[in-house]
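#struct-help
A.M.: can someone run this one for me? Single chain, 296 residues.
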Amino acid sequence: MTPLNNDLLEAFLCVARTKSVSQASEILFLSQPTVTHRIQSLEKELNERLFVNKNRQMTLTDAGQDFLPYAVDILNSWNRGLEKIRNRSEEPEGKLTVSMFYHASMLYGEKVVSFAEKYPMIHLSVKTLTPEDSVEQIVDRKVQLGFVRSIRHPALSYHKMKTGNFVLAVHPNHPLSKRKQIVPGDLNGEKMAFLYNGAADQKIIDQFYQEYGQASEIIMETNNFEVCKHFIMKRLGLAYLPQYTIQAELDEGSIAGIPVTLAKQPPEYDIDLVWLTENANLTLYRLFINHFTGKS
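D.P.: on it. Structure tokens below:
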């Protein structure tokens, strides 16, 4: 038996639905003899009568009734396959190299993976770089998109991904946990942990230490805010952190956060996505950004 022709199946299903060769011919934009020929060709392939003419209506035989659901499945599968192939040809494609500093990878790692899953035709490479190195490699055209912190460069364009204030993070049973704000002297004798991932972080650490922590003891600098969380929850000390890195713990009450205002350094921890303005692939970059913001 030769493979069934979809044209034969379409004619069969249309006649079965309308119970009329003439109506089927109008729907399919075919002549009545052509529709009749296709039905006869299908019956020859199956070696079965599929219709009988009763009271001027084309009525399915028992064999036709048995074959009907399979014909529907075959044609639906074919159409779904065509749609899949057509959609695949329209899928975004290309190469995209993205750099992420450690904090950004912890915040956005799952989103990067889901982007790769959603757009398999885009070849995605991810590098772990400091914000400063990201800017350098973007300018050198080794990286296309980079997550950075508080860095400005005249050759780059920016999209703000996240803005967050710093807070002093403490255990909920710590004496400072009920305070609305801290003042110089509150941290005397306290053990401190800080996030560090480049020069921008160092400036904030230095400013905070100068204004509030001169009599405290820095016992940890880490680029992993999960380590800072455990440091606090184990009551080993306090940490100065971007609020969004501990938002879940603040909401559940396992960590308390005290707002901090620095006189010379705004207590912000912005994360920007940056790219080289010249020759930018804005369609691809916008697709990436929209995936993170929920617009895709």
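A.M.: thanks! The chain has three domains: 6-89, 94-162+270-293, 166-259.
D.P.: also worth noting: The first strand starts at residue 51 and ends at 54.
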